[in-house]
Amino acid sequence: MAPDALPDDDGHWSLESLNKAYQQGYMAGLTGQPSAPPHAEVLAAAWEAGWSDGHEQMRRQQKIA
Q1: Rounded mean pLDDT for each run of 10 residues along the chain, 65 residues in total
Q2: What span, in angstroms and rounded, lies between the C-alpha atoms of 44 and 54?
Q3: Which of 52, 18, 23 is nearest to 35 (CA)?
Q4: How buried is 44 (Cβ within 10 angstroms: 0-12 exposed, 13-18 middle, 19+ buried)?
């Protein structure tokens, strides 16, 4: 198994897949989309972290404008 891929209850995930989920969540939060993470628990956690960060950034930008 590659060093960046670890098994979990959802199957297999990699650093790349976690980063992609985070980036997708961040963009969704940044653009004001509702929270709708993927079903895989680990990927959903990464997506939700990105969404939270993106949503917070959007709120900060709205306060400045």
Answers
A1: 42 87 94 87 93 95 87
A2: 15
A3: 52
A4: middle
**Considering the domain boundaries, does residue 20 fall inside one?**
no
For the chain, what is the domain count?
Answer: 1
**2 inside domain:** no
pTM above 0.70, yes or no: no
Residue 3 lies in a domain: no
CA distances to 14, 35, 55, 64 from 43, rounded to whole Å, are 10, 13, 18, 32
Q: Can you give the pLDDT at residue 5?
A: 40
> 8: which 2 tokens?
């979990």
